């Protein structure tokens, strides 16, 4: 986390569009390998669905529902990112400083508590 805070703090302002496009596609592809999403699906199905529903149809329908909820969450994340993009780009250096300080705080609080 400290390394990530350092990288955010040292980030150059206004990267080129080519890097932003590549980061969009790599981020899009990363969502299919995102361990949080995989654990979300495994935990929800094993804890809340399999103990109560045994039929294949119900498992498929709940899997579709979980995928839809995950899609809504990702869409909200993207929408708020698009909304705040102009504000963040105007105050990019200050935003990076605040985010890196928050990461350092999180890293320190892990060891203190």
Low-confidence stretches: none
SSE string: HHHHH
What percentage of amino acids are in beta strands?
Answer: under 5%
Mean pLDDT reading: 84
The first-to-last residue Cα distance is 16 Å
SSE blueprint:
Blueprint: H1 2-9, H2 17-30, H3 35-49, H4 56-90, H5 92-112
Question: What structural keywords apply?
Answer:
113 residues; single chain; elongated; mainly alpha
Structural commentary:
This protein has 113 residues and is mainly α. It has one domain. It has helices at 2-9, 17-30, 35-49, 56-90, 92-112. The two termini are 16 Å apart. The relative contact order is 0.14.
Task: Summarize the model shown.
By secondary structure, the chain is mainly α. The chain is built from 5 helices and no strands.
